[in-house]
Amino acid sequence: MSLPQLVQGDKKLDMDKGESPKQSKIHASMESLKVQQPNINRRAAGSNWQAAAAGTENQQQIPPAEGTPPPLTKSARKRLKRNAQRNRFVAMDCEMVGIGPNGQFDMLARVSLVNKTGEVLLDKYVKPRDEVTDYRTSVSGIRPQDIENGEEFNVVQEEVIKLLQGKILVGHALRKDFEVLHIKHPFANIRDTASYKPLCKVVSNGRTPSLKRLALAVLGQEIQTGEHSSVEDARAAMGVYNRIAGDWEKYLEKRRHK
Predict the structure, then answer these.
(1) What is the DSSP-derived secondary structure letter of residue 126?
(2) Where are the domains of the chain?
(3) Element (H or E) spanning 19, and its range?
(4) H-assigned helices in the chain
(5) What is the mean pLDDT of residues 207-228?
(6) Any idea which architecture 85-256 has in CATH?
(7) What is the mean pLDDT of residues 37-45?
(8) Once rounded to an integer, what is the mean pLDDT over residues 206-233?
(9) Which residues contact 235 (CB under 8 A, 6 or more apart)?
(10) In this structure, what are the phi and psi dihedrals at residue 186, rounded to the nearest 5 degrees?
(11) CA separation (Å) from 97 to 50, 103, 183, 223?
(12) Angle formed at CA 257 by CA 254 and CA 258, multiple of 5 degrees
């Protein structure tokens, strides 16, 4: 049967049902355009009423706004969490040269920061602000050309402050580093391997251990076999913390509740 015949047949049927000519015309137009209205009436849809209802609901859902990023997968969320954790902890170490009579006073010459996995975040030589009277090269590893070509103290200091903002800072004998950098850090966010009492008790019978001794005892690693490197020392301090971090944090939590 052709479409005109089908429409005419529907017209006749609609007229038989008591539809007005106007209603019949609209109905015929819809049929010719094949416009179908979903019917989610249970009796009309029979066993497929649930599927029909679901289809209608899906049609009514508002699509995401243009430019909205898709939701993160579970693996992506885990990766972001690991990255945040890795960057929450920073280890720092400084190398110093001597100024004043016999080089008895300290001046910052190099500062290094690494993250929880030992990745270098900053490693800068610092231009001297006073006359250097002792480069302490055998220990510091610093030579005149290193700091003569270094960056301005204020610039490096500002970079360090920004990197430490809101971070847990790990290091060894950090008080000396703070003094030469002229900065402070919240006490609750400091993990100093030179002053963690349970570690000092085990490694050096309660006395302050050297970082070299700690690295050997805790990590089985030899460091500072010649000239020191602030990157190597920062990594060693972070390695010591990582090895005992669980016990260290529990120890601090107990002290907070006393």
Answers:
(1) B
(2) 3-60, 85-256
(3) none
(4) 3-16, 21-32, 42-45, 49-60, 74-88, 137-140, 144-148, 153-164, 174-181, 197-204, 211-214, 230-256
(5) 96
(6) 2-Layer Sandwich (3.30)
(7) 50
(8) 96
(9) 91, 114, 118
(10) -55, 130
(11) 80, 8, 18, 20
(12) 90
pLDDT of residue 27: 56
**Dist. CA 82–CA 88, nearest whole Å:** 10
Tell which wins on pLDDT, 92 or 60. Answer: 92
**DSSP states along 76-111:** HHHHHHHHHHHHHEEEEEEEEEEESGGG-EEEEEEE
Contact of 173 with 192, CB cutoff 8 Å: yes
Q: Is 204 helix (H, G, I), strand (E, B) or coil?
A: helix
- Give the separation between CA 57 and CA 67, rounded to whole angstroms: 24
Q: Rounded CA gap, 232 and 220, in Å?
A: 14
Residues in the chain: 258
Q: What is the pTM of this model?
A: 0.69
The C-alpha atoms of residue 197 and residue 253 are separated, in whole angstroms, by 14
Q: From its phi and psi, is residue 101 left (phi > 0), alpha (psi between -120 and 50) or beta? A: beta
Q: Who contacts 139 (Cβ-Cβ below 8 Å, separation ≥6)?
A: 227, 228
